[in-house]
Amino acid sequence: MPLQEGSWMMPKPGHKVSWLWRASSKFTIAAIGLSSKFWIEWLNRVKVHNRETLYNMIERRPKGQGLLTVCNHTSCMDDPLIWGTLRPRILRIRNCMRWTSAAEDICFSNRVHALLFSLGQVFPLKRGDGVYQKGVDFSIEQLDLGSWCHFFPEGETIFINPRQGLMEQTLIIFFKPGIGRIISECKKTPIVLPIWHVG
Question: Which residues does the UniProt record annotate as the domain Phospholipid/glycerol acyltransferase (predicted)?
Fold first, then answer.
């Protein structure tokens, strides 16, 4: 099944993007990122282990080396809230921020939502279309350009995993076939960094 009309608004990887798109995307990413930072770090208490490892992978990985992060999925607000833990500098630089996928039937249900999520560097995946679809191809192209892509592998199923509890009891994130295809088909194998969050 193809994506519904109007779902795909992302510029083609590697092609020149208009200044209006770049400016709008930068504003969208910064506004949502800084709002998430306010929510997660100033209105709540958060503890991050190995934060420097993520910072180094985002800012200091070899030029042209893609970064693929994967994370457990517990709510529809996982992205963008988990990125509220990043440095404000990263949140303001569009080229440093992640590309991520979202369910087409939820986040790309109309043209306004599609535009907002596209400007926020989110691309649609169609549930049930398997690993050979436009969104997966797009992420491979972004990683080949040295970008950062993030996936919630549990989100490839029909549900968000609501399990909470001790890390030892729930630390089972299977790399779904889509993640395997992405890693294997990149021209240059990306750095793969798993992330785990609770609360």
Answer: 67-199
**Hey, what are 160's tokens?**
């968000």
* Cα–Cα distance measured from residue 199 to residue 185, given in angstroms and rounded to the nearest whole number: 34
What is the rounded distance in angstroms from the CA atom of residue 81 to the CA atom of residue 46?
11
Domain, as residue range, for 180: 19-159+172-195
Mind listing the pLDDT tens digit for each residue in 154-177?
Answer: 654 434 455 554 444 444 545 567
User: pTM of the prediction?
Assistant: 0.86
Nearest to 164 by CA among 79, 46, 101, 75: 75
* Residue 51 included in any domain: yes
Helix axes 111-119, 19-37, angle to 10 degrees: 80
Q: Is residue 133 part of a domain?
A: yes
Average pLDDT, the chain: 86
189 closest CA partner among 64, 58, 66: 66
SS3 at position 145: coil
Whether 129 is in a domain gets the answer yes
CA distances from 194 to 67, 87, 171 (A): 11, 19, 11
Residue 95 lies in a domain: yes
